[in-house]
Design goal:
There is one protein chain. A 3-stranded antiparallel β-sheet has the order 5-7-6. A two-stranded antiparallel sheet has the order 1-2. A two-stranded antiparallel ribbon has the order 3-4. Helix 5 packs across helix 6 and helix 6 crosses helix 7. The longest helix is centred in the first third of the chain and has 33 residues. With about 200 residues, it is an alpha+beta fold.
């Protein structure tokens, strides 16, 4: 029996060391060497201070900024730990809403968001990503159409010409990865930082 148990234990120990320690450490080291910014969280630094990550969205509520997709993330209710309260872009609790297409709560939320967006830019079709959440609730990007939809509001709030803000959006559009993967997109944080820079000029 010991003759059969010994090879099994040796194999278990060896594979644990290889796949549980050596491989993860090697991949972490290689990633940190080849992709140092990405391995550190794709942090965006402004004036020596970390202002966010290009991978995680942030909540912008001011009329002076472009706003990202709605976020369904939540946090524990400070008054009652058995309940949750909305906490947009809460990276500690990444999730969708788990509300299905027959959910009355989802339909009401989308209708309210749609009405608010239509009031913001009357007569224009509202891009779907401005009223729907992503699966993670942390999406940092918008479609170019969703960013362009917000141009009149942002330009008015900052006393800028629409064309100038529209050109800024166009300069921030990133294409498909390798020309075929995904859709063109605009990183909301990067766009808002560029917008702040535009105001300084």
């Amino acid at each position: 029996m010991l003759n059969q148990l010994r090879p099994a234990l040796v194999l278990l120990t060896a594979l644990t060391a290889i796949t549980g320690l050596a491989y993860p450490l090697a991949m972490t080291g290689i990633a940190g060497t080849i992709f140092p910014a990405e391995a550190a969280g794709s942090l965006i630094v402004r004036d020596g201070k970390v202002v966010g990550s290009s991978l995680i969205g942030q909540s912008f509520t001011s009329e002076r900024y472009f706003q990202g997709r709605p976020s369904a993330t939540s946090a524990a209710d400070p008054a009652d730990a058995t309940k949750t309260v909305p906490a947009p872009y809460n990276a500690a609790n990444s999730s969708g809403s788990n509300l299905g297409p027959t959910s009355a709560a989802l339909a009401e939320r989308v209708k309210a968001d749609l009405a608010a967006r239509q009031a913001e830019n009357p007569g224009q079709p509202v891009p779907v990503d401005l009223v729907t959440t992503s699966g993670s609730g942390l999406d940092p990007d918008l479609s170019p159409d969703a960013a362009l939809f917000q141009v009149p509001r942002v330009a008015k709030a900052r006393n800028l010409l629409d064309d100038r803000v529209r050109s800024l959006v166009a300069s921030q559009v990133r294409g498909r990865v390798l020309g075929i993967l995904g859709e063109p997109r605009v990183n909301v944080l990067a766009l808002n930082l560029a917008l702040d820079d535009l105001g300084r000029k």
